[in-house]
C-alpha cells in the first residue's frame, strides 16, 4: 500500500503503536494499545504537517490524533471499521449504549466518517452518527489469484475453508457444527481458539497464516464459508472470490454487500444449504466478477474522500491513476492514525 501511494506521487506517514510503550487490550491478546499515545504521536509526527489526516481507529492513539487535530484547527476524516459497541457487550458485558455514546463523541467533528457499506451507514445513522460516506473495500487481484489448488492436497473433498480471527462474535460454531461432506479447514487465531479446537476436533486448524500466504489456501478450497453476522464488511470474502472460490454465508449485512447471490456465492439462513449450493458455481465467473473491486478503484475513492487539512486550502488533494491502495490500519489488529500528503 505504501509503495502504491509513493508510485502515485504521494507521501504517506503511518503512525501505529509500533515503537511505543503498549499494553495488551482486554480480552484480545493480539491487540496492543499505546500507553502514552500523545507523546508517541508527537515523536512520530515531529514537525511534519500533512495535507490531510485520516484517523483509522477509535482507540487511544486515535484519540490522541483527534485531540492534536482539534488543538491545531486541522480538519480530518475518520473510519468506522468495527461495531465495537456490540463486541464489547458480548465479550465484557459493557452496555452498548455507553460505547455508542463514545462513538458519537469520537466521530462528531470528523469531516467524513468512512464506512464500508450502505447498510452500515444506515445503522450508524440510527445511533446518531453523521457526515458518513461509503468507502467500500477492494482486493489486490494480482496477489489473490487462482493457482494449482494443491495447498490442501490430501484432505477429503469438498474442502470448506474459513479464514479470520477466532472469536465468539465470528460465529464459527455455526460452521464447525455443520454435518458437511469432505473437510473443514480453519485459518486464524484468537481468544476463542482453544475452545473451538476442543469442541470441534474433526476440523483442521492451521493457526495463523501470513497474509501473503493465504492465496494458495483460498485457491485450494472448494467453498469459502463466512458465518459471521457482526462483521461490517469481510475482506476475506473478496480475497477468496478473487482466487475463484465461491462464498457460502448467512444473509448478514457484510455478505449481502459483497456476494452476488447465485454468481459469486450463496446466502442462506441454512448455512449447510448455502455450502452445498456454492459448490455448483463457476469458479472462472467468481473470479471475473471480483475484478471490478480492485485496489485501483478503491484508492481513487479514498483520495476523493480525504479532506484538506485547512478549510482555506484552495485545491483538493491531487488524484492520479495507478495501482491500488487499502488505507486504514489492519482491522481489529492495531490502533492508529494516518496522515497523507
Automatic annotation (TrEMBL):
Enzyme Commission number(s): 2.4.1.83
Domain Glycosyltransferase subfamily 4-like N-terminal intervals: 5-141
Coiled coil (UniProt feature): none
Molecular functions per Gene Ontology: dolichyl-phosphate beta-D-mannosyltransferase activity
Presence of keyword Glycosyltransferase: yes
The UniProt record lists the keyword Disulfide bond: no
Ranges annotated as spanning the membrane: none
Organism listed in the record: Orrella dioscoreae
Official protein name in the record: Dolichol-phosphate mannosyltransferase in lipid-linked oligosaccharide synthesis cluster
Pfam family, one: Glyco_trans_1_4
Enzyme superclass (EC): transferase
Keywords for this protein: Glycosyltransferase, Transferase
PANTHER family, sorted: SULFOQUINOVOSYL TRANSFERASE SQD2
Amino acid at each position: 500500500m505504501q509503495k502504491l501511494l509513493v508510485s502515485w506521487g504521494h507521501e504517506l506517514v503511518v503512525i501505529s503503536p509500533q515503537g511505543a510503550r503498549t499494553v495488551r487490550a482486554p480480552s484480545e491478546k493480539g491487540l496492543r494499545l499505546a500507553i502514552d499515545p500523545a507523546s508517541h504521536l508527537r515523536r512520530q509526527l515531529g514537525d511534519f504537517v500533512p495535507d490531510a489526516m485520516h484517523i483509522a481507529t477509535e482507540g487511544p492513539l486515535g484519540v490522541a490524533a483527534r485531540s492534536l487535530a482539534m488543538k491545531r484547527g486541522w480538519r480530518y476524516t475518520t473510519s468506522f471499521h468495527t461495531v465495537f459497541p456490540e463486541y464489547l457487550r458480548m465479550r465484557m458485558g459493557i452496555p452498548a449504549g455507553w460505547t455508542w455514546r463514545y462513538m458519537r463523541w469520537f466521530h462528531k467533528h470528523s469531516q467524513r466518517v468512512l464506512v464500508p457499506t450502505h447498510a452500515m451507514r444506515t445503522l450508524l445513522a440510527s445511533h446518531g452518527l453523521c457526515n458518513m460516506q461509503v468507502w467500500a473495500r477492494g482486493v489486490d487481484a494480482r496477489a489473490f489469484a487462482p493457482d494449482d489448488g494443491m495447498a490442501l492436497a490430501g484432505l477429503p473433498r469438498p474442502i470448506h475453508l474459513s479464514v479470520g480471527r477466532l472469536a465468539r462474535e465470528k460465529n464459527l460454531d455455526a460452521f464447525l457444527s455443520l454435518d458437511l461432506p469432505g473437510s473443514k479447514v480453519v485459518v486464524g487465531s484468537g481468544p476463542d481458539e482453544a475452545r473451538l479446537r476442543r469442541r470441534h476436533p474433526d476440523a483442521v486448524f492451521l493457526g495463523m497464516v501470513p497474509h501473503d500466504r493465504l492465496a494458495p489456501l483460498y485457491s485450494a478450497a472448494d467453498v469459502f464459508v463466512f458465518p459471521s453476522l457482526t462483521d461490517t464488511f469481510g475482506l476475506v470474502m473478496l480475497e477468496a472470490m478473487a482466487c475463484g472460490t465461491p462464498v457460502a454465508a448467512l444473509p448478514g449485512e457484510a455478505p449481502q454487500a459483497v456476494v452476488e447471490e447465485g454468481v459469486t456465492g450463496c446466502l442462506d439462513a441454512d448455512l449447510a444449504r448455502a455450502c452445498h449450493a456454492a459448490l455448483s458455481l463457476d469458479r472462472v465467473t467468481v473470479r471475473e466478477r471480483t475484478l471490478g473491486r480492485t485496489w485501483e478503484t478503491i484508492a481513487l475513492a479514498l483520495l476523493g474522500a480525504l479532506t484538506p487539512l485547512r478549510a482555506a486550502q484552495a485545491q483538493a488533494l491531487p488524484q492520479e491513476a495507478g495501482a491500488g491502495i487499502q488505507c486504514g490500519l489492519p482491522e481489529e489488529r492495531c490502533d492508529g492514525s494516518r496522515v497523507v500528503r
